[in-house]
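Tokenise the fold.
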Amino acid sequence: MKLSDMINQDLVCACGRTHRCNIKAVRIGEGVLTELPALTDARSILLVSDQNTDALCGDRVRALLGDRIAAHQLFETGNELLVPDEAAVKAVEAKMTDGIDFILGIGSGVINDICKYVSFAHKITCGIIATAPSMDGFASSGAAMIFDGMKVTFTTHAPDLILGDTDVLCTAPAEMIAAGYADIIGKYSALNDWKLSQLVNGEYLCPFVYDLVLNKTNEVRALAPALVKKEPAAIATLTEILVMIGVCLTLLSTTRPGSGSEHHLSHYFEITGLILDRPYFLHGTDVGYSTVVTAAMRERIRAIKTPKFHTVSKKTRLDAYDRIYKHCAGEVTALQAEAGRYGKDISPLYAEKWQDVVAILNECPTAAEIERMLLDVGFDMPAFEKMYGADRIADGKLWGKDLKDRYSVLWLYFDLFGGLEA
């Protein structure tokens, strides 16, 4: 199926549901930036960029749209990463006027999320001009924001317009291209968690989307050498697949096809980095490294012949929240109290379906296989271990899951080993 066949129309699926993604236009390829004026009928546009993304094509965008640009929010970040927090939202909203009918971002994940969040809140549409193939959220309806120090994914809307000009995308730093590749490799983990949750929790799974994402992940896996060389055709393919994954998330109104335990760990490293005021990797980079970690966790689990489950006391858990999440511990506690996962004992179900559990875990590539895929684009596991340290990684394996209310292999690992290692 082509990307153009997946947007702006109803898809009657064999899973029994009708899916829809209301994105009006996606253009990816050489020179497509020139099509911008014809791709939106907006007459009063708020442009959003940061100093790095604006330098790539901001002047061309302003020349193409002329006086249709009513205002511009330019984030001056220096050497710091732009954070999609309350301050960023306030800065964009300060440029809003009653006449603005479209928010257009120039950038990647953070700019896109800010634009989706603000445009949804103000009941107008938005678009994104991609400057790096670094993550799969371009087409998703979720906006990953950091509010009150916590990473929260809000349900918003997908952009009306996604434009990726390879003349711009090929200038992206090598680490951002590698991050996009790694975000896709992480789908091996996400899909495995989705299937595991279907078995354990009876969660809905769409076979069409599952197979599509798996096939596209395998396709990206073969692109590594060409991506390292920044070959335009490979960059275009990676970008299209990143967009396609986001479309899948919007079609199902869930991030399940693209986000599982590997994303939960990546969010953990980002949130703890913000809490501790320490550096962290790009989102996709963290996803890649975390995919290696979760693959190793699956291997440890599936080596068990007869599972034995362990519990931890509430005090132990809350003490861990205080130690790790500090001033955000109360929010983590409230999230898990609402989710109710700690009040459920599903060990009898695990025991009953253990062979099926192991069979699903066996479908995921091994940690060594994932590491080899990442090495192809320059990843280095010692760099990950040096960045976060053994203790922080170990804490993430046990407590990173608590930042989300979604089941993944992290919960199974905790049920087996949490009482031994906490």
Summary: The two ends are 46 Å apart (CA to CA).
